[in-house]
Amino acid sequence: MLWGLLEGLLGHTCPGCGNRLDAPLLCRGCRQGLRAFAAGEMVYLGLYGRVGGVVRALKYGKRFGLAPLLAEPLAEAVSAQGWRLAGVTAVPTLLPRLAVRGYNPPELLGRAVAARLGVPYLRVLRRERYTPSQPSRGRARRHLPQDLFAPVLRVEGSWLLVDDVLTSGATFLRAKEALLRAGAGRVYGAFLAVRDPGALGPYR
């Protein structure tokens, strides 16, 4: 409560609804409304129009403490699906981007999800090349090179691949392919937000 009051005095608002904070990082109403949805072999918190605020706060606002809060409903949804996971990994970013930002939001989220599921988190993939930001590109143009990601470890069993936003599905597909090349027998997905519900279609 004291942290919520302090953030309120500092002018911080809830990234979920924009109202005054009455709890640290995320207001009580938004905390109570957190739940994840399942679509085939994917789980996600909601459409970008609804949860985009918390995505931006984690991705650009450096509100690292949001990761454990947002990971909890995702982990619950994964458990409800009955997926038997060998581990969790995240879609990697380029080293220059990591150097500028200082952290990779999907990795923060993935580590928190793995901790709640009681399975290992490993950096299985490496990003090999730059591509423009997906939200800035038309859906018809989102054809990414097949060698966008490369495995750096050998794995086995089923893995959960975490990213912050599912836009067209192209980035997830390339990362999934690389994770399969790493030895994964099956790859599931977990996201904070989905920009285009149509992107869920191929994976249902």
Automatic annotation (TrEMBL):
Signal peptide: none annotated. InterPro entries: ComF/GntX_DNA_util-trans (IPR051910), PRTase-like (IPR029057), PRTase_dom (IPR000836). It comes from Thermus tengchongensis. This is ComF family protein. Belongs to the ComF/GntX family.
